[in-house]
Specification:
single chain; globular
Length: 116
């Protein structure tokens, strides 16, 4: 028998796919044009992903991955100056998207820790 997928899980999965695709595509465009309200859209999608997709067992992995992304996001790829603005914009957008989910997970972890 097939497993039934909850409607909210589907929304969370689509929010993840749309957020990641938007971060990459906007990074390609953002090297040329500035996109207003992109940060707000990415943060909202990240919050949705954090609320709907991340389970308790994945909390530590996600938070470590976000910290690693933030560390890499601070670096620039100066060896390839032609595509550097595009890669930097894509990575910044991905960090913004992941930070929304990380905020939710960090708050959940603090609440869970203080309940014990």
């Amino acid at each position: 028998m097939a497993k039934k997928i909850d409607g909210l899980k589907i929304v969370g999965r689509w929010a993840f796919i749309i957020g990641l695709a938007l971060a990459v595509i906007a990074g390609l465009i953002q090297g040329i044009y500035e996109i207003p309200s992109l940060i707000l859209i990415l943060v909202i999608l990240g919050l949705i992903v954090g609320f709907l997709n991340i389970e308790d067992k994945d909390t530590v992995k996600l938070l470590v991955a976000i910290i690693a992304l933030m560390g890499v996001g601070g670096l620039t790829i100066s060896a390839i100056p032609v595509i550097n603005p595009y890669l930097e914009a894509m990575l910044t957008n991905i960090v913004i998207f992941a930070s929304g989910a990380g905020l939710v997970i960090a708050i959940k972890a603090v609440i869970e820790t203080t309940r014990k």
